[in-house]
């Protein structure tokens, strides 16, 4: 019996690009490389969507797994953009360092991304639909190795799937709730993109969804007084006097989107920016708030429930003007309609 028989994706012509959601699809090609005896070997594309590994693999038992997420964007002229893939490559290297895994060189990472996008090019959604090709690089420890030690062998792979918006609303505000749980400890693995962080977030995420919220927002794991991040995105707020503020903490994932917004807010819109503390009892300082990330893009936060309080930032139904402006600039750059800062766009 096999539990790994995902059907092949529909033909691209049969896909409804405007209603994709965020779902796995078994596209024709993915990239694989194997680490053995201190080097990456046998790198290239494969049609096999299944990964067969030893039952004694560290990735199965001890969570020795790291991953990334980024997108390919179809431009008006038909060309395809990758958005700051070097930043994902570097973050993957940091995650690998934290979990004692071999690093993937930046050039190899970017070349692998391009191979996957080109091989599945028909699945890069058309310009104007807002949909994109999501790329999921990951690295796992493999080989029989049941002691709690780093594996001797690793697989690095990248697969892809066309996606629409991650949160149902897209650019329509949705509501979030503060979690009573923590996703990561201050000196734990929160700043690394490791599978275990997400396993820990499944239950709090379910509680939030069951209660009718888009997702939960984690508070600082020490005192539960400050906002840390959303389950799958960073948090930002726009103060009533127009400052872009985002939490600074060792247990949140350094979001490529967040750093891009910090840059755009300051350099393109002349806004003051700050990475600092956002106390949940001082939310009145903010005129707008949002969740930002590759999958979330910018998802406005309408209301935020913490304890018995329910705070509405800008509106539960309308997107705030600064959030909208940042969204237009960011997505304009990603889809090639607005000028990108040097080095942000890598053409496939
Ligand atoms: C926990 C978490 N925070 C933040 C982000 C946003 O990061 P990025 O903007 O690099 O996608 C993600 C998504 O990758 C995430 O999983």
From TrEMBL:
Q: Which SUPFAM superfamilies match?
A: D-aminoacid aminotransferase-like PLP-dependent enzymes (SSF56752)
User: What domain of life is recorded for the organism?
Assistant: Bacteria
* Cofactors required: pyridoxal 5'-phosphate
Top EC category: transferase
For this protein, the record's InterPro entries field holds: Aminotrans_IV, Aminotrans_IV_CS, Aminotransferase-like, B_amino_transII, BCAT-like_C, BCAT-like_N, BCAT_family
Q: Which residues carry this modification: N6-(pyridoxal phosphate)lysine?
A: 193
- Reactions it catalyzes: L-valine + 2-oxoglutarate = 3-methyl-2-oxobutanoate + L-glutamate; L-leucine + 2-oxoglutarate = 4-methyl-2-oxopentanoate + L-glutamate; L-isoleucine + 2-oxoglutarate = (S)-3-methyl-2-oxopentanoate + L-glutamate
Q: What is its EC number?
A: 2.6.1.42
Q: Record's Gene3D superfamilies?
A: 3.30.470.10, D-amino Acid Aminotransferase, subunit A, domain 2
What Gene Ontology terms for biological process does this UniProt record contain? isoleucine biosynthetic process; L-leucine biosynthetic process; L-valine biosynthetic process
Alphabetical keyword list:
Amino-acid biosynthesis, Aminotransferase, Branched-chain amino acid biosynthesis, Pyridoxal phosphate, Transferase
| Pathway it works in | Amino-acid biosynthesis; L-valine biosynthesis; L-valine from pyruvate: step 4/4; Amino-acid biosynthesis; L-leucine biosynthesis; L-leucine from 3-methyl-2-oxobutanoate: step 4/4; Amino-acid biosynthesis; L-isoleucine biosynthesis; L-isoleucine from 2-oxobutanoate: step 4/4
* UniProt GO MF annotations: L-isoleucine-2-oxoglutarate transaminase activity; L-leucine-2-oxoglutarate transaminase activity; L-valine-2-oxoglutarate transaminase activity
Family the entry assigns: Belongs to the class-IV pyridoxal-phosphate-dependent aminotransferase family.
Name of the protein described by the UniProt record = Branched-chain-amino-acid aminotransferase
Q: Which organism is it from?
A: Liquorilactobacillus satsumensis DSM 16230 = JCM 12392
Which lineage do the record's taxonomy fields give for this organism? Bacteria, Bacillati, Bacillota, Bacilli, Lactobacillales
